[in-house]
Amino acid sequence: MVFGASSSSSKGMTSIDKRNDGNNNFVAERNLSALIVDDDLIVRRIHTTLLTKLGVKTQGVENGKKAVDLFQSGDFFDLVIMDMEMPVMDGPEATKQLRAMGIGSMIVGVTSRNLESEKQAFMGAGLNDCYVKPLTVDDMIAILNKLNNN
């Protein structure tokens, strides 16, 4: 998959969509790292592929406990894509624990259900934003632009 740069900016994208690597691929403005937390291997692969194509170094784990453990061991990620429903430790609990540890990384929740009440409850755990999964190229670019502008 190759994602070409677009000259239109209907979503107000300003940073990532205007830069390319000479092959018309999006590239991040700075070295960014992301942790993909999802129990669905296919969704992890989709999100990893999208972020990698956008110039982001990624790592994936299958539950919130493993995400918390990575941060406790000293690993750092600029961005965390956090699934809501997972075994062992779900997204809201993992997000609460990360925030309680003082983790200031951008945490974006993803859910397979588009129920506003569930998204709001997940946001209450400390997310920066919440989307229905899987994320699209436009979603990822919007997220990375927000991260680059912080």
From TrEMBL:
The keyword Phosphoprotein applies. InterPro entries: CheY-like_superfamily, Sig_transdc_resp-reg_receiver, ST_Response_Regulator. The modification 4-aspartylphosphate is found at residue 83. Residues 33-148 form the Response regulatory domain. PROSITE patterns: RESPONSE_REGULATORY. Residues 1-20 are annotated as: Disordered. The keyword Phosphoprotein applies. This is Response regulatory domain-containing protein. It comes from Liquidambar formosana (Formosan gum).
